[in-house]
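Morning!

This is the sequence you dropped in the shared folder:
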Amino acid sequence: MLDVSHFLESHPLTPTIDDIRAALDIETSDHIYNPDQHIAPQAYRHEYRAAAVLIPIYNCPESNELKVLLTQRSLNMRNHPGQIAFPGGKHDPEDASIQYTALRETLEEVGLSPDCFDLLGELGEYCSVSGFCIKPVVAEMTRMSELSLCEEEVEQAHWVPLHHLLDPRNFRYVEREIGNVKRGYFEILYGDLRIWGVTAGIIYGLYQAIENHSHR
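The structure's back. Tokens below.
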């Protein structure tokens, strides 16, 4: 079980692409722990549907730092309008693999083709209260290409420094009552962006994978 207070006091990580690849070069069968599952287990009794997201990481030559691509969902979306997310979506039966799902959705949402990426590995699945079991696929963006946003799904795209996302001091843990049920989630603030819920939980999972590998 995740010790939230211990995590929030942990040291920041500044991994290289090689560090990330090495950390993910193992079987990742364990789910990413979501503190909400401990607080409100009844909210997670689903017939889960498979989904995938891509975590695109780019080594920006101007700043010499790794950045992560995040999207802001369209305000017209039925589910989670305006929230910050990774590109991704549900796994279709005709998709060849879960990795294909992540790459297909990225192409559809932001216009980046699969040949822009070198897959680095995967994290364990993240089960959401909305009934999806989400597979995070981590990729290095090896060829910068102009973004072409799908206006129906994506309001904006943002490149956020990886070191900011992997610094627990930038996380907050929030508990609140929703419909008379106590819920808990992480959130990360970056400028005007509020990254929370599933996206912040997956970022926590990336931190944990890299941190665990550093102690091997």
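Headline: The CA atoms of residues 50 and 133 lie 5 Å apart.

More detail when I'm at my desk.
O.
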